Amino acid sequence: MQDPNEDTEWNDILRKKGILPPKEVPKEDEEEEELALQQQSVVKTYESMTLEELEENEDEFGEEDEAAIEMYRQKRLAEWKATQMKNVFKELGEISGQDYVKEVNQAGEGIWVVLHLYKQGIPLCTLINQHLSILARKFPQTKFLKSISTTCIPNYPDRNLPTIFVYFEGEMKAQFIGPLVFGGMNLKVEELEWRLSETGAVKTELEENPKKQIEDKLMSSIRCSLPTRKDSDSEDEDY
């Protein structure tokens, strides 16, 4: 009697016609095939993961996967570094209204944009441009821009200057409008850095608002200059 599992052309024809049952796959071959599918699935999982996801899920993979995980981690790290190098600005750029969509709304994934609307001849605008130039060098991953207000937004009122808009991935996240918001010509670069850090546009190392320190010193000096109750009583006795 002919073996139905034998590899012959006749048996293949009979299997196609349904006369013979499908050829039995040896158990070892089945296990190897299943393992290969699992490995393909794991590799696909690596490829779709970010650096953070690789670190979060590394405990779920076996020791045999460590080499593959490390390979993809290095790949993702290289991609991240390339993106960071690409997104280095380092200076306060100037744009017109025609550039607005491209430079601000379409700045790119993960990009913070700080845009200053200004006019020449307004001292506080000049001061803020000086501060932003310093911050642009300090925080090169953030895109710092300036634009003459009326060339960017037609008929933009001078009373709203200076104005700073903060965008992230094309969405406005914060706005500072008018001189009172900035505290006038006493504005320090550290205070502006703190204000921008509160929006998320920069990652400051300042531990607290510098303006608060100035206010605390001011209040302390006022308290020191006020006469004490005892001094006041002695003055009354002199009269």
From TrEMBL:
A GO MF label: vascular endothelial growth factor receptor 2 binding
Keyword Magnesium listed: no
Record-level GO cellular component terms: endoplasmic reticulum; perinuclear region of cytoplasm
Domain of life assignment: Eukaryota
GO terms (BP aspect): angiogenesis; apoptotic process; positive regulation of gene expression
Ranges where the record places region Disordered: 1-34
Comp. bias intervals (Acidic residues): 1-10
Coiled-coil residue windows: none
Similarity-based family: Belongs to the phosducin family.
Described purpose of this protein according to its UniProt entry: Acts as a chaperone for the angiogenic VEGF receptor KDR/VEGFR2, increasing its abundance by inhibiting its ubiquitination and degradation. Inhibits the folding activity of the chaperonin-containing T-complex (CCT) which leads to inhibition of cytoskeletal actin folding. Acts as a chaperone during heat shock alongside HSP90 and HSP40/70 chaperone complexes. Modulates the activation of caspases during apoptosis.
The protein's name in its UniProt record: Phosducin-like protein 3
Native source species: Seriola lalandi dorsalis
Organismal lineage: Eukaryota, Metazoa, Chordata, Craniata, Vertebrata
